[in-house]
Amino acid sequence: xxxxxxxxxxxxxxxxxxxxxxxxxxxxxxxxxxxxxxxxxxxxxxxxxxxxxxxxxxxxxxxxxxxxxxxxxxxxxxxxxxxxxxxxxxxxxxxxxxxxxxxxxxxxxxxxxxxxxxxxxxxxxxxxxxxxxxxxxxxxxxxxxxx
Length: 147
What we know:
Blueprint (H helix, E strand, L loop, with lengths): L1 H14 L3 H8 L7 E13 L4 E6 L9 E6 L14 E12 L2 H11 L5 E12 L20
Antiparallel strand pairs: 1-2, 1-4, 2-3, 4-5
């Protein structure tokens, strides 16, 4: 039994990242933030952690439309957030490029095409008034003058 466990640990070690790649990823240097404006809605709110999960209609720079664990600054009142309502989000996006050796490792060993690490934090948000953009439905009394 002990032998099977040891063999299992060796296999999982083989599947992980080499230490040099892990170190490079952990020490990646993020550049200056780029402010990105996107519309979408809040999927989940983590008030105690000051984080939200959002879905945006236009993809983020990393190609994703769902952002999990988006950092919310303490200056924004997270208790006022509402799930399912459309917001315009202003998001600071940070990019840290990966070295060529790590990019090649991720591509060949993990079939992962990744050239950079992305980090996003909420800068501000504005609730959108989507319903008022819809044309008002004509009432039944308008235009029904048949006598």
